[in-house]
Design a protein that fits this description.
- The protein has one domain (13-380).
- Helices cover 64% and strands 0% of the residues.
- It contains 13 helices and no strands.
- Helix 3 (75-100) packs across helix 11.
- The longest helix is centred in the last third of the chain and has 39 residues, at 342-380.
């Protein structure tokens, strides 16, 4: 098969905008998490569900962008395109995490002060290449696959989803894909309701009846990560194949309201971990997120909403993948200044929020867009005819 460069298809602007709405809420969720006593007490309580929503969006977009192109595109072409889209910011997020690493030192993270510069460089190299760090290599204390940039764990699973799609699941018929999604839905219910059918969830009792987790390569966290990936991503793919979308007037604003309401909704059942909250998690992932994506993809965006969606869409990925090194520092400052006035804590949090958005925008304009354009011209399009 002759390899060709495939021009980009029309974008679903509303889905881009929704990704940005969710990313902004994620930043706020993490800022509040610094002061939380646990999942049941967290402000913007269900912000962690943004990851599951991102996976639904990704699955839909992958299906839309590539399902009808495999007669013109090789596996190598597919993986190159995905690397160009995702990996420059993976590198930047890890680099920022490495530059800010020692500023996060405090009594709660004693490993930071014990980490030599060469050890930091090894972990940075792992982050650059998306190789997950085993718990015994941890240099912070949270057992993350990338201790320099926590959210990179979800990008690792995104890469796995792309590999599964390209090698196997793109070949599934609609019927087989439905069966696969049904099995993945069972895994979501098992995790959300803490049924623990496979006996893997005992170590995460602190977060039972949620889907929190997936950022380490221990057996329980690997199960959580895989579960959080499989249903959302491949139900998104299924939606793109069925293509029965829902048209709503003012779709961006209605979808934004729904996703924001879901993510900020209080913990169900008060300050106790209970099955009602697990049922809420399952309902949002299994029903609401696919519904919102169907509405966003089926609706039109006009007027000023176009610019809003464009900006939110552009900023979403850089914001998500670069903000957490700032959260590490905010966490260290808050723990070291626990007796500081409330106004000072608010000022620091607001400043970090603004700085995160500004840093993401700078990374987008000064790094991500230029690097991707260079890679397209010198790697993707080299020796290829433009379709």
């Amino acid at each position: 098969m002759k390899s060709v460069y495939l021009a980009s298809k029309r974008r679903y602007e509303i889905l881009d905008g929704l990704r940005g709405v969710a990313a902004i809420i994620v930043v706020a969720f993490h800022l509040f998490e610094t002061y939380s006593k646990g999942p049941a007490y967290q402000i913007l309580n269900h912000g962690y569900l943004a990851v599951d929503f991102f996976f639904v969006l990704s699955g839909f977009v992958i299906g839309y962008a590539y399902d009808d192109r495999w007669d013109k595109m090789s596996l190598k072409d597919f993986f190159k395109r995905r690397l160009v889209r995702l990996h420059p910011m993976v590198i930047m997020g890890t680099l920022i995490g490495g530059l800010f690493f020692y500023f996060g030192a405090n009594v709660d993270f004693p490993l930071i002060g014990q980490t030599p510069w060469w050890g930091l460089l090894i972990i940075m190299l792992c982050g650059f290449t998306m190789l997950p760090v085993p718990p015994k290599w941890d240099i912070r204390g949270w057992g993350e696959t990338n201790p320099l940039n926590g959210p990179a764990w979800s990008l690792m699973w995104e890469y796995i989803a792309n590999i599964l799609y390209a090698l196997v699941i793109r070949r599934f018929s609609k019927t087989l894909l439905v069966l696969f999604v049904a099995f993945a839905a069972f895994l979501t219910i098992d995790l959300s309701l803490n049924l623990d059918v496979f006996g893997l969830l005992a170590p995460r009792a602190y977060a039972k009846y949620t889907v929190i987790g997936g950022w380490s390569i221990t057996p329980d966290q690997m199960y959580i990560g895989a579960t959080r990936l499989l249903y959302p991503f491949f139900v998104g793919l299924l939606i793109s194949r069925i293509n029965r979308l829902i048209k709503v007037k003012g779709g961006f604003w209605w979808c934004s309201f729904l996703i924001a309401a879901i993510l900020v909704f209080p913990h169900v059942g008060g300050h106790e971990l209970n099955i009602a909250n697990g049922a809420y998690n399952a309902f949002c992932i299994l029903i609401m997120f696919p519904l919102i994506v169907s509405m966003g993809a089926g609706s039109m965006v006009t007027g000023k909403s176009v610019k809003v969606c464009k900006f939110f869409g552009e900023i979403s990925y850089p914001l998500y993948i670069t903000h957490y090194p700032l959260i590490y520092m905010q966490l260290a400052w808050a723990h070291s200044h626990a007796d500081a006035p409330l106004a000072m804590h608010i000022c620091v949090a607001v400043s970090v929020f603004i700085l995160a958005i500004g840093m993401a925008y700078a990374c987008l304009k000064l790094y991500d867009l230029p690097v991707r354009e260079w890679l397209k011209r010198h790697w993707l399009m080299k020796n290829h005819a433009v379709e």
